[in-house]
Amino acid sequence: MPELAPSADLVLPELLQGQWSSALILTFGADLGFFEAHLLSQLAAVPLRIILADDERLNEKFAEAVETGQRLRRANRTYVAAAIRHPGSAHAKVILLTAAREGLLVIGSGNLGHSGYASPGELWSVFRYHSEDPRHLSEFVAGRAFGTAPGLVDTRG
Q1: Which of 14, 58, 79, 117 could form a disulfide with 53 if both were Cys (CB 3.0 to 4.6 A apart)?
Q2: Residues 127 and 143 sit within 8 Å (Cβ to Cβ)
Q3: Is the Cβ–Cβ distance between 108 and 28 less than 8 Å?
Q4: What does the angle CA 40 – CA 43 – CA 46 come to, to the nearest 5 degrees?
């Protein structure tokens, strides 16, 4: 069984602790200002940081930042923020942190932002893997299969 994150408040800074080599966040809506202000410092030692969001929502956020003068100083400099292009919408809400022998997989209903990561009503399941404790290995394998599914990546160039 997965660990259940507290329903009223997902305490991300504590969950993000560890010697991770990569961080992948999948989300429908991406509040990059929230990410830069509240989460990026927790991932400072992680060499690979990627946020993948629905293409329409991400484009709206970048346009909004330009219109309002919001400075997303680190987007595509210290972390990658990229669009998932799909005929429908990209609604996955996942945080995947990996290292050579362990991983953390958080799957839930909240978008990247304060209201999605720390408000009542969002549900989260937390799976941990370690080479010495492989009980959640099947969840990580399923996540890998999802990430390599045909049609998930836009190969049109």
Answers
A1: 58
A2: no
A3: no
A4: 135
pLDDT of residue 154: 46
Q: What is the mean pLDDT of residues 19-42?
A: 92
Which uninterrupted H or E stretch holds 94? strand 94-98
| Residue 104 β-bridge partners | 97, 128
Model confidence over 33-89: pLDDT tens digits? 999 998 998 899 999 999 999 999 999 999 999 999 888 989 999 999 999 887 878
The answer to whether 72 touches 37, Cβ cutoff 8 Å, is no
b/e per residue 37-68 (b: at least 16 CB within 10 A): ebbbebbeebeebebbbbbebbeebbeeeeee
